[in-house]
């Protein structure tokens, strides 16, 4: 147990020493970046001195506009170069893909699925609707009603019209109504 305690203590000591070294390195890098930033700004952005007269101010504005235009042109040129290189990279990667060989799609197999299984696969556990449409239908018993019998007995409609035409037909209808 003493050896284990010594080993864990040594590990913790090494770990803390490494963390301290890393912290100092991070601080040094941050300081170096700050110095580099100051040097860059001092080189590219001289301190601004505002002249007193209006003509000198106008000249300064013209110089600043000229610098802005030149920087914009450089930015545009670099963007165009970047787009060109990206396009070339895409073309080369496509050529490489074509040279390696054609991608062969595997043949698709037919799978028989019921509507319930398909809905379960698409919706997951949310699926509660049953697609068995025949189960939801009502059972209807066909009954022979008197109207249907009468219609079958009548037969041809022309005979029915002839019977009801004239006074005799109206008399029959009147007597049937009573």
TrEMBL record:
Species: Leptosomus discolor
GO MF assignments: actin binding
Keyword Acetylation appears in the UniProt entry: yes
Gene3D superfamilies: 1.20.5.350, 6.10.250.180
Keywords carried by this UniProt record: Acetylation, Actin-binding, Coiled coil, Muscle protein
Gene Ontology CC annotations of this record: troponin complex
Subunit structure: Binds to actin and tropomyosin.
Coiled coil: 14-102
Similarity-based family: Belongs to the troponin I family.
Lineage: Eukaryota, Metazoa, Chordata, Craniata, Vertebrata
Name of protein: Troponin I, fast skeletal muscle
GO biological process: cardiac muscle contraction; skeletal muscle contraction
Pfam family membership, one: Troponin
